Amino acid sequence: MQRLDIDYDAMLCSGHAACPGCLDALSVRHALAALGPNTVAVVPPSCMAIIAGPQPYSSLRIPVYQCSLESSAAAASGLRRALDAQGKRDTQVAVFAGDGGTYDIGFQCLSSAAERNEDFIYFCLDNEGYMNTGAQKSSSTPHFARTGSTPAGKSSRKKNLTEIMAAHEVPYAATACAGYLGDLVRKVEKAKAIRGTRIITLLIPCLDGWGLPDDGGLQAARYAVESGVFPLYEVEDGTRYTLNQPGRTRSVSEYLSLQRRYGHLGPEQIATLQAEVDAGWARLIERVGSGH
């Protein structure tokens, strides 16, 4: 791996409440480093809310507003307008929300803000389930994954949030993960220089919810990218697609084999998942090639 040197004062303090090895903390640490100290954060109920700490305490060295689960985008919109009224247009407003508060409960609010092109950066910390309350399934949970509410495996496929946000024609929508920190930091820096609604979905392998060892998060994140399960790409203004990885170097089965939540799958189901990933990859390549 290429060494990543970032010169910054840490804005996520040690001693926070993340699980050992949690990629939530690693991802947010680097996102905040790229954003800089002139940032305010909106954090709904989620794993990140636990990591940030109960108000008035915080593990973040920037102002944090903990809102209700469904209102992250509305809270960010209000903070942005209040800061603009004070002449603080250079202050970044950043949301750090989980997939439950983004794909599901907060989606109506996010879609409305995107339609208005509200000026904030939205980070979806996507661990593919309601991991803070017992690892129940969300609409981000992948097909066949076993969760607390789908013990036999989820019967429906994962919602494609990035494509949905691209359909809103927001200025910037992208995927990233801590397995490729250089790409993650570059995308945050790029989003920071843009005005309007920007959303970056960060894949966060959940050690307990996915059934990974304490040191297994980064490997799972890299395998997700390398198998095409979670491709790294960005969409500008809903039309300009850029792929940020050279291709796929692993089979989907290699990615699945790392995780206990897929331990019940047979060859037929694994083949189905491989076919779904192949079809999604082909659609993405077509959009990248056509510029749409």
Which band does the percent of strand residues land in?
5-15%
Strand order, largest beta sheet: 2-1-3-4-6-5-7-8
Q: Helical content, roughly?
A: 25-40%
Main sheet attributes: strand count, strand direction, barrel closure = 8 strands, mixed
Instruction: Determine the N-to-C terminus distance.
Output: 32 Å
Give the CA-based shape: globular
Describe the model.
With 292 residues, the protein is of the alpha/beta class. It has one domain: Rossmann fold, CATH 3.40.50.970. Helix content is 38%, strand content 14%. The chain is built from eleven helices and eight strands. The protein has an eight-stranded mixed sheet with strand order 2-1-3-4-6-5-7-8, with helices on both faces. α1 (23-35) packs across α7 (181-192) and α3 (72-85) runs parallel beside α5. The radius of gyration is 18 Å and the shape is globular. The mean pLDDT is 95.
Produce a short descriptive summary.
The protein has 292 residues and is of the alpha/beta class. The chain has helices at residues 23-35, 47-52, 72-85, 100-104, 107-116, 161-167, 181-192, 207-210, 217-226, 252-256, 267-290, and strands spanning 39-42, 64-65, 92-98, 120-126, 172-177, 197-203, 233-236, 240-243.
Q: What is the topology?
A:
Blueprint: H1 23-35, E1 39-42, H2 47-52, E2 64-65, H3 72-85, E3 92-98, H4 100-104, H5 107-116, E4 120-126, H6 161-167, E5 172-177, H7 181-192, E6 197-203, H8 207-210, H9 217-226, E7 233-236, E8 240-243, H10 252-256, H11 267-290
Parallel strand pairs: 1-2, 1-3, 3-4, 4-6, 5-6
Antiparallel strand pairs: 5-7, 7-8
Helix pairs in contact: 1-7, 3-5
